[in-house]
Design brief:
Elements lengths: L9 H11 L4 H10 L4 H9 L18 H13 L8 H13 L2 H13 L4 E5 L15 E5 L2 E9 L9 E7 L13 E7 L6 E6 L7 E12 L3 E2 L5 H37 L1 E2 L2 E2 L4 H29 L5 H26 L10 H9 L8 H12 L7
Parallel strand pairs: 1-4
Antiparallel strand pairs: 2-3, 3-7, 4-5, 5-8, 6-7, 9-10
Helix pairs in contact: 1-4, 4-7, 5-7, 7-8, 7-9, 8-9, 9-10, 9-11
């Protein structure tokens, strides 16, 4: 199963495996039971330099490309752990690196690199707009040297456990802009000192630390506007391609974990005098899921290459995320079926991983919207929404 997305990242994967070995199944099961945040795991990743992988060396990071981040997160999931607790820090980073001011980078990036600051909250989705980002209602209005923010976000994962949030808000009313994608701006919110900020956890079927966030005249310093006012949607889109590639890497890791478990059990479980893996009815679903994973892996690798070369990668990022999410779900289904009743037992960790990987056909973008993107932007068919 050890076929890295990028062979040059084999050394990184080996080190991540060593770290993950310190956090076996019982650690994650206990957190899942109480919906706890894996503080020790995130701290270990930070201290090892993995969460600062994309931060330039001048700010205390490793200065590695996106493929290295994919290798880190993919291996975390392949080892049975969960990178959802910290993966946002990887893809949020790109927006600040590309569009943040020199002062913003100097102020925040060293702390993120050494772990004294957590940048893990991404405030975009709202209850009334969902993935229709341009219809969001959270507003920010300029008053002197500050912005006043009002509104609500939902599914802002890790908000309770993050120091900083990257926030998208409307700074010009939708009816006053030429294009609906204009008039949206991006801000860095320091949640440690922000007033008028309320966070409410949402309990879900998986331990994803999701929250609702409410803004009631919350003040954000003018210096925390990222890039130019009104161009935030474009900045967020750049981060979304990185997000989809990294989530796809996690799904590929999940698929490898499921398949390794399936193969091992199919070899050792004996019924009617023979290993169950000798039966094609057991073999074929596992093999088919493996093939789907390998196809998705090839698309994701291509997307990473294009992203790092500065080329358009929306097609690969969207397809890779969709195919990887479907492959991980198929591998999970085969794993449960192979294990029979034991697949539902908590001590095998399969049911936990099964719940975790199901999320990625819905978030960070649903499969239907991926298909709509491909239909319109890749195949040239009429816009469907």
């Amino acid at each position: 199963m050890d076929q890295p997305l990028v062979e040059a990242d084999a050394e990184i994967r080996a080190e991540v495996r060593k770290l993950c070995a310190r956090f076996p199944g019982p650690y994650w099961r206990e957190l899942d039971l109480r919906r706890g945040y894996p503080t020790e795991f995130v701290t270990a990743l930070t201290e090892a330099g993995f969460l600062g992988a994309l931060i330039p060396e001048e700010f205390g990071g490793a200065g590695l490309p996106l493929s290295a981040a994919a290798a880190i997160l993919g291996t975390v999931h392949e080892e049975g752990c969960n990178g959802a607790a910290c993966h946002a820090q990887m893809y949020i980073m790109g927006t600040i690196l590309r569009y943040g001011s020199a002062e913003q980078k100097r102020r925040y990036l060293p702390g993120v690199a050494d772990g004294s600051l957590r940048l893990q909250a991404f405030g975009v989705t709202e209850p009334s707009s969902g993935t229709d980002t341009t219809a969001l209602r959270t507003t920010a209005r300029r008053e002197g040297d500050r912005w006043i923010v009002n509104g609500q976000k939902i599914w802002t994962s890790r908000a309770e456990h993050s120091d900083l949030m990257l926030l998208l808000a409307r700074t010009t009313p939708r009816e006053q802009v030429a294009k609906k994608t204009d008039g949206l701006s991006t801000f860095i919110v320091d949640m440690r000192t922000a007033k008028g900020l309320t966070i409410r956890p949402i309990r879900t079927m998986m331990n994803h630390n999701s929250c609702e966030v409410f803004f009631d005249n919350m003040e954000v310093p003018a210096a925390n506007l990222v890039g130019e006012e009104g161009r935030g949607f474009r900045y967020i889109l750049d981060g979304m391609n990185a997000e989809r590639l990294l989530i796809a890497a996690e799904c590929i890791g999940d698929a490898k974990w499921f398949t390794a478990k399936s193969v091992a059990y199919a070899k050792e479980r004996v019924l009617f005098g023979r290993p169950i893996g000798q039966n094609q009815g057991v073999q074929f679903p596992i093999a088919q899921a493996y093939a789907r994973m390998r196809a998705a892996e090839a698309i994701v690798e291509r997307g990473l290459e294009r992203f790092e070369a500065g080329l358009p990668c929306g097609e690969e990022a969207n397809m890779g995320k969709m195919l990887a999410a479907e492959a991980s779900w198929a591998a999970g289904e085969a794993c449960i079926q192979t294990h029979g009743g034991f697949g539902f037992a908590e001590e095998y960790d399969i049911e936990r991983k099964f719940r975790e990987t199901r999320l990625y056909q819905v978030a960070p973008i649903s499969t239907n919207l991926v298909l709509s993107y491909l239909g319109e932007h890749v195949l040239g068919m009429p816009r469907s929404y």
